[in-house]
Amino acid sequence: MTSTTASYAELADLSVAFTPPSPAGLNDAGLLSAKRELAEIRRRLDAADSLVSAEIANRSRPDLGYDGLAQRLGARTPEHLIQRVAGVSKKDARTQIRVGTLVTGLTDAAAPVDPWLRGVASAVAAGSLSLDAADAIRTGLGSAGSGVTVVALTAAADQLLREARELTVERLGARARELRASLDLEHVAEREELLRSKRYLHLIPRADGMTRLDGLLDPESTARLKAVYDAATSPRRGGPRFVDPTSIAQADALIDDTRTTEQIALDTFLVLLELGTQADVSTFIGARKPAVQVLVTKADLDQHTGMAFIEGESEALSVATAERHVCESGAVPILMDDGQVINLGRELRLFNRRQRIALAARDGGCIWPGCDRPPSWCEAHHIVEWSRDGRTDIADGVLLCRHHHMLVHNNHWTVVRYGNRYAIVPPASIDPTRTPRAAQTKSPAARRLMSQAGR
């Protein structure tokens, strides 16, 4: 046991003053090893902590009235008591109680855990799954019923546990909601309308003369807003590089602008609002709308059932919404053979607009494991360089965000294709074995197409 690890092992001995050791002397491998060890220690501590929180909630049940633990100590709820004792946020206290109750159900016959969540609860108890990840799976999958069976939910939970190590908590939650939607197609439209009914915009005056803008957007509204936001600010936020001289000049001017990125975004929205009040609605900003790509498989569109997705958004939408967008904007058919978009040849050095639409539909954003950059922030990368007779074909192109695109070119990473699958291969300096790391599509529509094909 290294001195660093030994020091962390003393965390539980509260009789000894603890000072965290400095990681400055660790090499890169040792630094990452320490991070992994601390993450596991934290997961174990959180698992034990959640059980304590769940028991505090149990001893503060509403039916106990003022005899409840929290109430006797002057706290209105167990969450408030946990906040006071542990110094955590209300959100964290609630998560601890929910997940702790889940883990308690593994051994409590009086309140057993839902069958499809037993694996999730066991992973938390073993210290291999964080509380936030467990809560994301629990919330995203929901309950059995409405045609969704316990068997189907169990299979979905098991799949999420396999994917959890490669996904952030946010993406794991989105993936859980995606799987739930695929199991409950009859209620996709209802869930879409429920989210839409929650949208709002508030203007809140402050004492200092400023006004706070507060709002909540449903997925479709978010996509429309993000299209404008990204167009106005992406060069400032690490967006794609440009080769057109005019675009380069515009990007340079935005980067040199003395306003903050947030101020540029606000000013853009105010200008658009002003234009909207002055212009003829039939000619406002020409006839061009913000680019919002709706992805839906032909089978779902033909049958008027199933689900659709907005590019860059994880929530499933109804096919009726997809049909509305097709009616307003037309459809761009993207034909796939064995999960791969049809090749378009080597005549062009750069991927054209239609090819980029196809790449976005297939990849759903940067293919780098763990990266959440959407297609609009990505650049098309030749997996075989053009200078080495690479082809500007969809199959030989992938989407990478600017950071990872530069990493590939500058740090000797490579992207390889195995049929219709892709992998990232690290340089020998990172991994002497150069073991490929799977790069799975982030496009829920592409995964939907695969599931329809029985893959």
TrEMBL record:
It comes from the Bacteria. Pfam families: DUF222 (PF02720), HNH (PF01844). SMART domains: HNHc (SM00507). Residues 354-406 form the HNH nuclease domain. Residues 429-455 are annotated as: Disordered. InterPro entries: DUF222, HNH, HNH_nuc. Belongs to the Rv1128c/1148c/1588c/1702c/1945/3466 family. This is HNH nuclease domain-containing protein. It comes from Antiquaquibacter oligotrophicus.
